[in-house]
Amino acid sequence: MAWVFLIVAGGLEVVWAFFMKQSEGFTRPLPAAITIVAMIASFALLSWSMRSLPLGTAYTIWTGIGAVGAFLVGIIVLGEQANAMRIAAALLIVGGLVLMKLSSQG
Fold first, then answer.
1. CA distances from 86 to 12, 37, 62, 73, 82 (A)
2. What are the boundaries of the signal sequence (predicted)?
3. DSSP character at residue 51
4. Which of 36, 69, 75, 86 is most deeply buried (CB count within 10 A of its CB)?
5. Phi-psi region for residue 82, left (φ > 0), alpha (ψ -120 to 50) or beta?
6. Is 16 exposed, middle or buried (0-12, 13-18, 19+ CB in 10 A)?
7. Does the pLDDT value for residue 106 go beyond 70?
């Protein structure tokens, strides 16, 4: 169950990052409120996952899901630049996440 909490927490990190951008510096109330609620939920789920997962594994996976997810949302939803170097960097992050997951199974 810890892994489920962690994956959902990472997804919520993407949500709050997107809505923080949409809040325009917390000047728009609805996106700002969504940001805060998603942050709290993300931190709570991360905390629950850390009850049984190692700190380094949980935090790395959480931030990696958030980083790659925000990268993808930026490209797909916000029309941000997708060049070879940015894509390679995202793939390296994903590779690191896979290795972290595999290293924590044993």
1. 22, 30, 20, 13, 6
2. none
3. T
4. 69
5. beta
6. buried
7. no
Amino acid at 19: F
pTM of the model: 0.88
Would you say residue 16 has pLDDT above 50?
A: yes
As a whole number of Å, the CA-based R_g of the chain is 15
Q: Where do we find the tokens 């630049």?
A: 81
* Structural tokens at position 84: 């070879």
Question: What residues have CB less than 8 Å from 59, skipping those under 6 apart?
Answer: 46, 50
